[in-house]
Structure formats: C-alpha cells, structure tokens
UniProtKB/TrEMBL annotation:
PANTHER family: PHOSPHATE TRANSPORT SYSTEM PERMEASE PROTEIN PSTA
Transmembrane segments: 12-38, 58-85, 106-127, 133-151, 250-273
InterPro entries: MetI-like, MetI-like_sf, Phosphate_PstA, Phosphate_transprt_permease
Source organism of this protein record: Beijerinckia indica subsp. indica (strain ATCC 9039 / DSM 1715 / NCIMB 8712)
Name assigned to this protein: Phosphate transport system permease protein PstA
Membrane topology of the entry: Multi-pass membrane protein
Limits of the ABC transmembrane type-1 domain: 66-269
Length: 279
C-alpha cells in the first residue's frame, strides 16, 4: 500500500510538472500574440499596404517590403521544393536502406538544424562577396537552402507512409518505375507533400538573419533581383532598433503581418495533414 501511494505521488508530481510546462508555453504564446495585437493593430491602415517605407517623421507604409518578401519567399520555395522532393523521392524509393541514403539523411538533418545565420554567411561568401554587392538572387538562394532540408525530410516520410501493396500493384501492371512514382505514389502522398511545402514557406517567410547577409534591404520599391531588395523581416529589424516612434509602429505592424501569415500557413498545413491522417 505504501509503495502504491509513493508511486501515485510521483505520478501526480510528474503530471503536475507536465501541466505546468504546458501552461507556461501557452501563456508565453498568448502574451506574444497579445503584445503583437496591442502594438501592431494600432498601426495597421490602408497606407501600410499602399505606401513605401518612409523617412523618419514622414507618413508611409510597407508596400515595398511586402512585395519584396513575397518575391523572395516565392522564388525560394520555387527553387528549393523540386530539389527537396527529388532528394526525398530518391531516399524513399530508390535508395531505401542503402548506406548512401543514411549519409544523405544525416547531412540533411544537419542542414535542417543549422542556424539560418550560418546559411546567410555561407551565401555571403560564395555569392555576395564574388559579385561585389548584395542582391535579391543571393537572398533567394539562402531561402532555398532553408527550404530543401524541410521538403526533403517531409517528402521521404510521406512517401514511406504510402502502402507498399499499392505501388506493387501498379508495378505489377507493367508501369515504369517513374510512372508509378509520379502517378500513384505522389498522388497518395500529395497532402503530406503539400504540408511540407507549406511548413517550409512558413519557416522562411519570417527569416531575418540570412537576408541581412544577402538581399540586405532597400528603402525604395524594387523588383530588380540583381540589387538589394526590401523584405519585411529586414525592415522590422531596422525599424525596431531605430529611435523613431513611427518606424517602431511600422515594425510592430510588419511583425503582426508576418506572425499571422505564418500562423495561418501552419494551421492550414496541420489541418491538411490531419485530414489525410483521418482518411
């Protein structure tokens, strides 16, 4: 009876610690969202989406930063996704269980956990320094490098979940391996593959460090990727550190836009993955 009571007390203690840790995480998230809503919502207006970043003391918005972020994020996903899907497909379909796949998976995990500032420094050394100037192309390459390991890992995991009898039945009909993968395996795992792409998009849309070393920033509206391009994370970094109240208000508004964009993408990805799992 004494032993049972001691085990029950230990169990209650650990359950209480789990509840406390969960409450701490949820409270931190609620405080962050409350601060963003309180500080950022007051600065949101039509001018934020229609005017360019202003000089101190002037009226303005974040149009050039929003457009720059959309361009850099779209191109980063466009370049990184095919490479990640191909790598994940090789690991799940052609190189399953081989030593080479183990090495690739290990290197991919290292790249997945690498700090984004390291990726920015790498692109700075191999692209920005030889070119002699910051550019949107370098920013796109840095973001693509962040996309590749996420898409690679999710692609491999999703393809491994596809029932083998399904692909074996298609192969038994005489279909080529590539046709089975594109028409059967990809279709069966398309929700999971799309979830990986959405999670990668959410990850890079808020990255600041790699852009500071590559695309830098631009006070004006520019879609020329051969020069510095404005982006929301870089603008937030610059404006939040400034002593000007109007710039700080725009930084909060930009942070609010990024946070809720990432939140919406993450929720959509989770819902998509949950529906697939329920089926």
């Amino acid at each position: 009876m004494t032993l049972y009571a001691a085990r029950r007390r230990r169990n209650n203690v650990w359950i209480g610690l789990c509840y406390a840790a969960t409450a701490f995480g949820l409270c931190s998230l609620c405080l962050i969202l409350f601060a963003l809503l309180f500080e950022g919502a007051s600065g949101l207006s039509l001018e934020v989406f229609t005017q360019m970043t202003p000089s101190p003391g002037s009226a303005g918005g974040l149009l050039n930063a929003i457009v720059g972020s959309l361009i850099l994020t779209f191109l980063g996903v466009l370049i990184g996704t095919p490479l990640g899907v191909l790598a994940g497909t090789y690991m799940a379909e052609y190189g399953r269980g081989t030593k080479f796949t183990l090495v690739v998976r290990f290197l991919n995990d290292i790249l997945l956990s690498a700090p984004s500032i390291v990726i920015g420094l790498f692109i700075y050394q191999v692209v920005v320094a030889p070119m002699g100037h910051f550019s949107g192309f370098a920013g796109v390459l840095a973001l693509a490098l962040l996309v590749i390991p996420i898409v690679t890992r999710t692609t491999e995991d999703m393809l491994l979940l596809v029932p083998r009898p399904l692909t074996e039945a298609a192969t038994a009909l005489g279909m080529p391996r590539s046709y089975v993968i594109t028409k059967v395996t990809y279709r069966a795992a398309r929700a999971g593959l799309l979830t990986g792409v959405l999670l990668a998009t959410a990850r890079i849309s808020g990255e600041t460090a790699p852009l500071l070393f590559t695309a830098l920033n631009n006070q004006f509206f520019s879609t020329n990727l051969n020069g510095p391009v404005a982006s929301l994370p870089a603008i937030i970094f610059q404006f939040a550190l400034s002593p000007y109240k109007d710039w700080q208000r725009l930084a909060w508004s930009g942070a609010l836009l990024i946070t809720f964009s990432v939140l919406a993408l993450s929720i959509f990805a989770r819902v998509l993955g949950t529906r697939k799992t329920a089926k």
